[in-house]
Amino acid sequence: MATLVFDIETSALSLDNFDEAQQEYLFRECEKIADETARETRRAELRQMCNLWPFTAQVVCIAMLNTETGRGQSLFIAEDFEEEPSDAPVKFIACADEAELLAQFWDAAKKFDSVVTFNSRGFDVPFIYLRSALLDVPISKKNWLGYRYATEPHCDLAEQLTFYSVSGRDGAARRFNLDFYCKAFGIESPKSHGVTGMDVNHLMAEKKFREIAEYCLRDVRATVELYKIWKERLAGIK
Q: How confident is the model at residue 86 (pLDDT cuts 50, 70, 90)?
């Protein structure tokens, strides 16, 4: 079977979802800052970081492509949407909530033996595992964290392009973000349209759900192109 490439977008849950004790725990360090301005700045930083934790954020979009056919889906949470033509190579599929989105993703994922991502061993995969567990959504692929020093079933390009962080943060194989790698290898950056992952919260607030789905898909398309380059030029280096 073919290889799946996917990416997710996440958005922080409202603080109303957490009781007083949980909120105190999240922002505890702020109370140690005497200066009010500095305290509020740090609180805003922590609020932004809530996007990154599966117990304080939800998955709002998952885009995926088949590396062989170029066909795929971009699943996204939305209040309303327009149906895509049935023959479109990539379908934009609106979901009523996160549980439906994750269920559809795991249903699609079970058809693939291998998966390629960028930095998903450290973020996307544990995030969707934990969100699925929290929402009691069955997980069809439980081996994607696997053995770190193997590219099957999961090839994480962020690890491959740093040779598993062989030279640390500042050496020759230091890690760059996807945008930097894309520009270096002559691939169109997913950020070239002016949207980044930092924009997801306000796009959700503005109900621009389709824009999130399109941005996420651009991330996946860029990852596919980077994978092709890695596979042709670097795969097998040990």
A: low
> Are the C-beta atoms of residues 86 and 158 closer than 8 Å to each other?
no
Q: In what order do the strands lie in the sheet with 57-66?
A: 90-95, 72-77, 57-66, 3-12, 114-117, 154-156
Q: Which two tokens stand for residue 181?
A: 């790698």
Contact 9, 59 (CB under 8 A): yes
The closest alpha carbon to 133, from 92, 99, 165, 83, belongs to 99
Output the CA–CA distances (angstroms, integers) from residue 183 to 44, 47, 118, 138, 226, in the order listed: 31, 30, 15, 38, 10
Q: CA-to-CA distance for 181 and 187, rounded, in angstroms?
A: 8
Residue 133 φ then ψ, to 5°: -65, -40
- Cβ neighbours, 10 Å, residue 100: 16
pLDDT tens-digit readout, 157-181: 999 999 999 988 889 999 999 999 9
**Residue of 233, 235, 124, 225 lying closest to 183 (CA atoms):** 225
**CA neighbor of 137 nearest in space, from 216, 62, 221, 51:** 62
| pTM more than 0.70 | yes
* DSSP-based three-state secondary structure for 117: strand
